[in-house]
Amino acid sequence: MEPIGIEEPAAAAPGRRPEALSLRDPLTRIPRLGPARAARLAREGIRTVGDFLLSLPFRYEDRRRFGTVATLTAGQAATLLVRLRGVRSARMRRGTLRIESVADDGTGAVRVVWHNRYPSFGEKAQSGKALVLYGTPVVTPRGELRLENPETEFFETGEEADPLHSGRIVGVYHRVAGIAPRTWRVLVRAALDNLSPRPAAASLGADELLRALQGAHFPASAQEAEASRLLLAGEELLVLAAAIERKRARLRERSGIVLRADTALREAARRALRFRLTDAQKRALREIAADLSSGRAMARLLQGDVGSGKTVVAGLAFLLAARNGVQGALMAPTEILAEQHAASLAMLLEKAGVRLGLLTGRARGRSRKALLDALASGEVDLLVGTHALIETPVKFRRLGLIVVDEQHRFGVAHRARLFRKADSPHVLVMTATPIPRSLAWAIYGELDVSLLDEKPPGRSAVVTRVREENARERVYRFAAERVRAGERVYVVVPAITEGPREVAATRETAERIAAAAPGVAIGTLHGRMPPEERSRALADFAAGRIGILVATTVVEVGVDVPEATFMVVENAEVFGLAQLHQLRGRVGRSSRPSWCALIVGERAGEESRSRLSILENTSDGLLIAEKDLETRGPGDLLGSRQSGLPAMRVADPVRDLGRLGEARREVALRLGRGEEIVSDLFGYP
Ligand code: ADP
Ligand code: MG
To answer: Which of 153, 274, 470, 556 lies deepest, with the highest CB count within 10 Å?
Structure first.
């Protein structure tokens, strides 16, 4: 730990006042910060004066009212205006001091101890000195109250004004790079006092920006702190929106192969389909066809709830490409999904003459080589596989359309690489999890959006019930009934970490079900199984050789078995709502009634039960996603830290993101007028 305080400054050079600080200047220009701290901060990503000032307090303490020693209570923080007497100091390791004293404010006296202080602190802490202390008294073993390491502010004569650490609302900072909150305050003050009066800001006037920074670090009231933060968040969102708009504009400059839809194609599409497209599917296809024939490369997001028929839309786009003599590629996040897509696309497209290939890690040796040769010579029109498809040197004769099934694994970096490909293919991104609009804007803002907001007719809603563990036997017996009626049942078990646990979890649950529902064929499915076994289990389930499939969340996406009518989720409380909604999308894939039982563990709290009950009452994926975002934050909804959400310094991804839409409209307007959007604070452009 570094010694508390910064009382060992490099003395400022006398004479000329140094030039004012720009928010873009390196940290080292902040008076008294010094190269060692700057190096440590740089390792935390804090490199400029602006970065430093954006490390806002994570909370504030109201130290405005002075307490009295007489009313001090153990465990309760108080601010005291006192005078020291009986100061004693002892030398500690590394030349720092332990200082002990009695603090007296006329109402009483309390013992104070400071540890690990610089000698310069000792010089100030002399008997007779007036100072302000802020701290929480503790009780010593002997039953006395004592202040340990209180925040301390010495007053030079006539210097009572603007104390940094007490007598006011005080910001508390995270201890980044080993720098104590108290030191942060001093350094922030030094930076603010030396700032240039004319910073460039995107959404605020220069004065407003400076006031907002001042108000966020040293607010005069709680309201000022909040208002200042909101202003800074607004600035950040505008800068973010401008970055998204630029990316969008750049994507739109790419030229693309012109692919046209003619009457023959429409006829072929009609013949390929066993059903009528929904209006939403028709709309999406019109939008896609318009992109493909525009001469610019498509960059589009196809968003729709589970079962809204995205795969069909993608399939028809591939048909259009094939008819134009251009190859397509479909990338899925997992092999299971790639196989599922290949199977359903083959059903849709092979009659229409589209030649389809499936490339997974399983294809080896001669068959792999044959497939790659066929691809290179143009004998395969559509290649389905995992992301390895376009990352390894797989040679296409003329690749023109890439569909990425991102599901809920948002691969932003990955997407950027796709768009940079020299041959600028048309790209369609599919996501299954409905994403609240504000989030979609932040994550997919550079893409045009087609929304499938309608389901194929004849689908009944999945009747969903939250069940306690003591109802489990009954749930399993109901599962057996469904199987005897010729239907299929999924039982999903959580396996937080992949590995042996997941194997054990599926096996144990399968045994439990076997005991409750004898005579029903039960299978298991988890990520640890070799691909052949997994495919076999799914095929057996689809064909009815397995009636109940006990699985981990590997069945979450893509698996399409229309006879499945009942889904049981064990320990449902560990899942996010959006994920559960996604899971239950595996049933209700036909006109038969279907059900979902969410079993909550005994130890689950009341709030999990009420959270889960949202699923009993709605099947609106977007609403569910919004609830998830509110209650569990974006990390949960998006699956991981690299969720594609841009890093935000001040704006809150839940609370403030709703304002991004507004910011985007403003940005579009201003860029359209030829204005520049420049921000010294958020470093853009
Ligand atoms: P998603 O990928 O959006 O979850 P899919 O494209 O897999 O949805 O479609 C789900 C199921 O609905 C598939 O069995 C598909 O054949 C069927 N389907 C898609 N569109 C329609 C439609 N317009 N009418 C009837 N069934 C459809
Ligand atoms: Mg699908």
So the answer is: 556
Contact 169, 222 (CB under 8 A): yes
* pTM of the predicted model as reported, rounded to 2 decimal places: 0.72
Sequence-distant (≥ 6) Cβ neighbours of residue 99 within 8 angstroms? 87, 88, 89, 90, 113, 114, 117, 121, 122, 125
Distance 15 CA to ligand 1 centre (A): 77
Token digits of residue 544: 């009815």
**Quick one: which ligand is closest to 309's CA?**
1
The predicted-structure confidence for 52-61, as pLDDT tens digits, reads as follows 999 999 999 8
Give CA–CA dist 539/600, Å, rounded. 30
DSSP class per residue in 554-575: GGSSS---TTEEEEEETTGGGS
Q: Which residues pair with 78 in a beta bridge?
A: 135
* CA dihedral for 12, 13, 15, 17, sign (positive or negative): negative
**Which ligand 1 atom sits nearest the alpha carbon of residue 589?**
11
Question: Rounded to an integer, what distance in angstroms lies between the CA atom of residue 415 and that of residue 595?
Answer: 37
Q: Which residue, among 34, 108, 116, has the nearest Cα to 71 in the 3D structure? A: 108
* C-beta separation of 685 from 678 below 8 A: yes
Three-state SS for 428?
strand
Q: How far is the CA of 306 from the centre of ligand 1 (A)?
A: 9
pLDDT digits (tens, 9 = 90+) for 91-120: 887 788 999 999 998 899 999 999 988 888
Question: Angle, to 10 degrees, between the axis of helix 577-584 and the axis of helix 621-638?
Answer: 120
Asked if 215 and 225 touch (Cβ cutoff 8 Å), the reply is yes
Structure tokens at 382: 């559509």
